[in-house]
Amino acid sequence: MEYPQPYTSAATYSATTPTAPPHPMPVAVVGQQYCCPHPVDLAVVRKVLTVADKFTVTDLNGNVVFKLQSSLLSLHDHRVILDAAQNPVVTLRRKVMTMHDRWQAFRGDSSDPKDLIFTLKRSSLIQFRTKLDVFLASNTSEQVCDFKIKGSWLERSCVVYAGESNTIVAQMHKKHTVQSIAFGKTNFMVTVYPNVDYAFIVALIVILDEINQDSSSD
Length: 218
Hints:
By secondary structure, the protein is mainly beta. The chain is built from 2 helices and 12 strands. The chain has helices at 178-182, 198-217; strands at 40-47, 55-58, 64-68, 78-83, 88-94, 103-107, 116-122, 130-136, 147-151, 159-162, 168-174, 185-192. The longest helix is centred in the C-terminal third of the chain and has 20 residues, at 198-217. Mean pLDDT is 77; it is low at 1-21 and 177-184. Belongs to the LOR family.
């Protein structure tokens, strides 16, 4: 089955676009292989009492889909997302000396500007609830965001929208268990809507986690 061309522009959406999953064409940000014609539910497990191997993404059967590269020597502003075969999928870098907590995502283990996938930044300097803007690499003017994240990271209730519309492409919700609390883990679920790149959504979640940790340590 051949998919249409990947989503590349914020102009596709308008503020009046209704909420209507699934999206008619794949939102292939990282790659079309991560777009499914049905909803994808992922479980995120974050070990809060350890440094290494702290962030793992599985399917509902417990199979590892992605994990964050674990290294005691890795820089706080540099994260690599690996697939189940340990291949680098996305490299995340935080730009230093920026006021809006700006992050960039690159393909594989690259940091070359030609491999830039998207940029994420806070919508405003002062925030009581999470509000982040995401700009694809092709959106160089950054006048209108391609995706927006709203909600509360503390409550694990963030929602990812397409541009400035009300169209939801993914959403998070808590999943606490007795075992997760006892073993120092934070568990939550992510539902990625049909035809939406779930590798892209996982990259957004990793950045959200890093931003939240920064805010907690201030």
